[in-house]
């Protein structure tokens, strides 16, 4: 196999990739189930190193009793941990969620702040989680770089970076702002369905004419 140390896609190729992704996944949205910005925030915290399918299984029952910050304040960390035990890292997540709920009640009247800078102050909330919330719950343009977005964008050639921060910055420059939030979902869908981590399904991919990874296969 040839070296994959390559330049990024040309502007025309980026346009072609985005057009094909949009055509392939026209209805792509977050696959986390939620009914409020708060539920999305909690689900996204739970989704760290866990699948959306598993998170949805957990929250289907959890949100029947606890779907507002005030509700979680009646729980001890170990009690919440029992609810979310199957999602991994549950002790740390339980601690962060309860701490976050305390802050939301004390400082924001029980509401989820709409500004990224405020969200980043909450325990367990990094830039990816904040971007997911402001994009999906509040309609702000943002690209949340999760494991799928990172892998697919760098594999295809939309970005060329070895960290998520630079990947996000490069994607924001190469993708029109009006498409940031949509592109985030397109890349996630493509990563889950076609451009998988260990064995990408290149024979089923619509992007082989542009993809730098595919062009460098023997």
Write a structural description.
By secondary structure, the protein is mostly helical. It has 12 helices and no strands. The N and C termini lie close together (5 Å).
> What's the order of the H and E elements?
HHHHHHHHHHHH
Level of helix content? 55-70%
Strand content: under 5%
- Reported by name, the CATH topology of the largest domain is Endonuclease III, domain 1
Q: Provide the CATH superfamily of the largest domain.
A: Hypothetical protein, domain 2
Largest sheet: none
Our Rg estimate from Cα atoms comes to 19 Å
Spell out the blueprint of helices and strands.
Elements: H1 11-24, H2 37-46, H3 52-65, H4 69-72, H5 77-84, H6 90-108, H7 116-119, H8 127-136, H9 147-156, H10 164-174, H11 180-193, H12 212-215
What's this entry about, in short?
The protein is mainly alpha-helical.
Which labels suit this protein?
218 residues, mainly alpha, Endonuclease Iii, domain 2, Endonuclease III, domain 1, 2 domains, elongated
């Amino acid at each position: 196999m040839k070296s994959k140390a390559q330049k990024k896609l040309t502007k025309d190729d980026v346009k072609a990739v985005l057009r094909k992704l949009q055509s392939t996944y026209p209805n792509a949205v977050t696959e986390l189930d939620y009914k409020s910005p708060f539920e999305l925030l909690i689900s996204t915290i739970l989704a760290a190193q866990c699948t959306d399918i598993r998170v949805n299984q957990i929250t289907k029952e959890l949100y029947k009793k606890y779907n507002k910050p005030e509700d979680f304040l009646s729980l001890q960390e170990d009690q919440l941990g029992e609810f979310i035990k199957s999602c991994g890292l549950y002790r740390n997540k339980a601690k962060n969620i309860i701490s976050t709920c305390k802050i939301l009640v004390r400082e924001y009247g029980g509401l989820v702040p709409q500004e990224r800078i405020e969200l980043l102050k909450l325990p367990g909330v990094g830039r990816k989680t904040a971007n997911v919330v402001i994009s999906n719950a509040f309609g702000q343009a943002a690209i949340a770089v999760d494991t799928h977005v990172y892998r697919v964008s760098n594999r295809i050639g939309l970005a060329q970076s070895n960290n998520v921060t630079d990947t996000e910055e490069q994607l924001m420059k190469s993708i029109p702002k009006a498409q940031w939030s949509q592109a985030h979902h397109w890349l996630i869908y493509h990563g889950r369905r076609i451009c998988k981590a260990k064995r990408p399904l290149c024979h089923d991919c619509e992007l082989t004419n542009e993809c730098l990874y595919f062009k460098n296969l023997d």
